[in-house]
Amino acid sequence: MASNRRILTAIQSLIPIQIFIGYCFCVSGFLVNFIQLLSKIIIWPFHKQLYRRVNYYLGTLLWSQLTFIYTWWADSDVTVFVDPKDLEYLKHEYALNLVNHRYEIDWLVGLVDIGPNQDEESSSTIQHKANPYPVVESLDDTELRGSIKRTQLIVVASLIDKQTNLGGLCRTGEVFGVKEMVIGSIRILEDQQFLNLSMTAHKWLRIKQVQERELKDYLIDMQAQGYTIVAVEQTVNSQSLYEYQFLEKTLLLLGNEREGIRADLLSLVDVTVEIPQAGVIRSLNVHVSGALCVSEYARKYLNFMK
């Protein structure tokens, strides 16, 4: 091991090797940037979601090179502070490494950091990126939960203020097999008005907290995971709800009762839909609008689920 270390150090000290590694990193960086520019020109005008996904993976590809440099060149030491009684167990047990990071480059660097220090015969390492958003899981009734049909639809109601609207949406989402409902605060689950409308639906539907200030980052994250963001809003480019064909991985974004959806959030959405109206009143209640959209989505996908 010591001889291998000396050989590696000698190789690392060679100026041509250092120049070559730097050259490769710079060239690959320019190449990735060039592809990003082309995707901006060619893909962005026609498919924003695809453009974001392409750039997401290009960025990960570029910066993952740092993990190679980190492992091969830096030879960094990791200092572990531990109780002397536990010292004998280090590197001889399975470990779960929890990292409160959300992006792939953190996962790659963390994996390299802990990977080489494992006892290959007796241990392995699992790294998990912690979910930054609090989640309330549905009721733990294995037999009943196994019979519940769920779609891929996520309903985002973080902009909605009124407890009654949130309670009604929760009930609607559970009835139509929504995968997850996102709200601004999980404290609403303790509100009596919410409970009166939800009719225990919150016990069976997965609910996640994403505060309004976190919503922009959350939407970008979900787009990177392949979700199409559909906003219920009246705009010049809105499509009729009854003509639009929902994709299976859809995130439905609902607006505030008074203000609707902020402009900075609308700039992120892939599609806006509106509900055709025949009356004089300008709009429907947000709970009713959401229920109509969820029902229209479920009409296409719920019957095809296994």
UniProtKB/TrEMBL annotation:
One of its GO terms (biological process) is tRNA methylation. Residues 153-294 form the tRNA/rRNA methyltransferase SpoU type domain. Signal peptide: none annotated. It comes from the Eukaryota. The keyword Metal-binding does not apply. The keyword S-adenosyl-L-methionine does not apply. This is tRNA/rRNA methyltransferase SpoU type domain-containing protein. The chain crosses the membrane at residues 20-42. InterPro entries: Alpha/beta_knot_MTases, SpoU_MeTrfase, TRM3/TARBP1, Trm3/TARBP1_C, tRNA_m1G_MTases_N. It comes from Adineta steineri. Pfam families: SpoU_methylase. Keywords: Membrane, Methyltransferase, Transferase, Transmembrane, Transmembrane helix.
